[in-house]
């Protein structure tokens, strides 16, 4: 039986400072992250001792040095938030890692809360900049100078599942799922074939099938083996092949369908080979064909479109759910998946209120027609970028939302609440509540641990190896009878 798919996302945002001739992305990111303030006191470290990014899922550890900043740099670059999230500087980008959730709808809520947090800190940071300068942030994946940055997904998996099986069944799925979860892009990059418009922002940057790297020679399937949980029981599948999405519908579909496919892999429910002859070539071919009609060479000698490949997964998923007790969101995802594939087969533009790449394409084509422009016009490139602008009064996605031209999954009230409230059914609840209640006594945090500095005692690390423990149901009574961090540590020892 497949294990519950605890999930989360890590989004790197594009950043620039308009009017700054000496723009330094790293110092701008530090300013941005530190401009965001919460009520809990204390300078809290991110616990890098608990991380090992060099471990490979294929059973070995690669050579290299693990980066560990000094204490001052650590505090300056990292914030752990009372909603259970991590907000920090990753290389030259601000990154928001949402708290662990148990279903795709909660993922939408908490990823969208991250957008609000980033935008709030942008406004605070702008107040600190010299006159004439303005910080701008984009939820996209490319700076148009050859640099791509990630929108990563994470899913908890059963370690007993063969990683070879994971690779075999996910490779064709990842190469083709972009047809309903791409963010869209004008033109091509990274020496790829020229095109006017493509489905995915990231497809041009994938150069190999399976590897550990995330920044060079990017693989379709990443092998990082850093579970942030009990290593004997769990694997965290680190997915780097997706785009940064703004459409709630797209985020929901992306997470829900992927979760279903992973559960099917664990339960052995994919009983046929859907392997592509050349996945790296295929991921680019799919992206460069917004008609969704290009035929991909399959390992079995057939030629199928991306829609046909996805239909095979859908058929298997329908059979899978028919044989077990399903959750409401699973049934909803099946319906939306089927409807999306039907629309893509008829005319992708039918999804112009739901799927990011279609929404953006419809906007640009309308603009081009009105202005008499071609795809290479600078105004078209600017419109592409403006779709991803996080300012709610300027970003084109948010304009569509205000006009009722973007299908919603969550409510504004739910998103606003998630800015300060962690999910209640994962260990994120315990993490967030500890920060809210005992912030000044928290010494360090990681996804699977929290450390307290109480009086003159040695730092006490509490491990959280089970992502589904630490929920409100598990710890609310413990927290309520622990008015101080010292009480909590004492009660945990008892």
Question: Describe it for me?
Answer:
The protein is an alpha+beta fold and 494 residues long. The chain has a single domain (7-38, 81-417), classed as Creatine Kinase, Chain A, domain 2, CATH 3.30.590. It is 39% helix and 17% strand. It has 16 helices and 20 strands. It has helices at 25-35, 71-77, 104-126, 163-176, 178-181, 248-266, 279-287, 306-322, 328-346, 356-371, 378-387, 396-402, 412-418, 428-438, 472-480, 485-493, and strands at residues 7-12, 14-18, 45-46, 55-56, 60-61, 78-80, 86-90, 93-97, 134-138, 151-158, 185-186, 197-198, 206-211, 218-222, 234-239, 295-297, 303-305, 442-446, 449-452, 460-463. The strands form 7 sheets. The chain has a 6-stranded antiparallel sheet with strand order 6-7-8-1-10-15. Strands 3-18-19-20 form a 4-stranded mixed sheet. A two-stranded antiparallel ribbon has the order 2-9. A hairpin with a 5-residue loop joins strand 6 (78-80) and strand 7 (86-90). Helix 4 (163-176) packs antiparallel against helix 6, helix 4 runs parallel beside helix 7 and helix 8 runs antiparallel to helix 9.
């Amino acid at each position: 039986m497949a294990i519950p798919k605890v999930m989360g996302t890590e989004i790197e945002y594009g950043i620039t400072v308009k009017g700054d001739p000496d723009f330094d992305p790293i110092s701008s990111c530090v300013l941005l992250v530190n401009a965001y303030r919460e009520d809990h006191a204390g300078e809290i470290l991110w616990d890098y001792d608990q991380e090992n990014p060099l471990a490979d899922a294929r059973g070995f550890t690669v050579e290299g040095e693990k980066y560990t900043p000094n204490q001052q740099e650590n505090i300056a670059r990292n914030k752990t938030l009372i909603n259970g999230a991590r907000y920090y500087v990753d290389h030259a980008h601000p990154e928001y890692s949402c708290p662990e959730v148990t279903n795709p709808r909660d993922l939408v809520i908490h990823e969208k809360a991250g957008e609000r947090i980033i935008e709030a800190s942008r406004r605070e940071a702008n107040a600190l900049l010299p006159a004439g300068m303005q910080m701008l942030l984009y939820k996209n994946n490319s700076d148009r100078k050859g640099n791509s940055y990630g929108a990563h997904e994470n899913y908890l998996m059963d370690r007993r599942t063969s990683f070879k099986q994971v690779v075999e069944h996910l490779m064709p799925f990842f190469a083709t799922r972009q047809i309903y979860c791409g963010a869209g892009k004008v033109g091509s990059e990274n020496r790829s074939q020229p095109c006017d418009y493509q489905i995915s922002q990231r497809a041009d940057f994938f150069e190999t099938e399976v590897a550990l790297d995330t920044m060079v020679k990017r693989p379709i399937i990443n092998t990082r083996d850093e579970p942030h949980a009990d290593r004997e029981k769990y694997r965290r599948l680190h997915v780097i092949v997706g785009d940064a999405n703004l459409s709630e519908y797209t985020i929901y579909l992306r997470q829900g369908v992927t979760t279903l496919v992973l559960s099917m892999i664990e339960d052995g429910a994919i009983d046929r080979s859907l392997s592509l002859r050349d996945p790296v070539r295929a991921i680019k071919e799919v992206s460069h064909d917004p008609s969704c009609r290009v035929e991909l060479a399959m390992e079995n000698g057939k030629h199928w479109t991306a829609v046909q490949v996805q239909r095979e997964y859908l058929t298997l998923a329908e059979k899978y759910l028919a044989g077990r007790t399903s959750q409401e969101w699973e049934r909803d995802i099946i319906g939306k998946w089927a409807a999306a594939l039907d629309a893509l087969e008829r005319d992708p533009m039918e999804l112009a209120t739901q799927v990011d790449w279609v929404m953006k394409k419809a906007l640009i084509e309308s603009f081009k027609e009105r202005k008499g422009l071609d795809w290479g016009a600078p105004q078209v490139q600017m419109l592409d970028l403006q779709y991803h602008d996080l300012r709610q009064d300027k970003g084109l996605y948010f304009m569509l939302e205000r006009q009722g031209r973007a299908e919603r999954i969550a409510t504004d009230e739910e998103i606003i609440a998630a800015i300060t409230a962690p999910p209640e059914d994962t260990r994120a609840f315990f993490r967030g509540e500890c920060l809210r209640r005992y912030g000044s006594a928290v010494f360090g945090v990681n996804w699977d641990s929290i450390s307290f500095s109480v009086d003159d005692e040695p730092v006490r690390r509490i491990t959280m190896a089970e992502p589904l423990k630490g929920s409100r149901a598990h710890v609310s009574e413990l927290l309520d009878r622990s008015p101080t961090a010292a009480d909590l540590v004492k009660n945990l020892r008892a």
